[in-house]
Design goal:
The protein is mainly α and 69 residues long. The protein is built from two helices and no strands.
Length: 69
């Protein structure tokens, strides 16, 4: 009886682990595609990319700088 419960829990944990690993692989592939897309965008539009990066950095500095008070 207890052994059956342990087997059930083990099976459930194993299946959950497999699902998480599959999701992790999907997420990794999506991140890789996003990175490749981003690199392509930067190569095609370096000036716009630089301006966006500067604006994002400025915005983050203002947002995080206001928390010091």
């Amino acid at each position: 009886m207890v052994g059956d419960r342990i087997d059930q829990v083990s099976d459930t944990v194993g299946k959950a682990s497999e699902r998480l690993m599959a999701r992790g692989k999907q997420l990794g592939a999506a991140c890789q595609r996003a990175g490749e897309t981003g690199r392509g965008y930067v190569r095609e539009r370096p000036a716009v990319s630089l301006l966006v990066a500067v604006a994002a950095g400025y915005g983050l500095s203002k947002l995080l700088g206001s928390r010091k008070s």
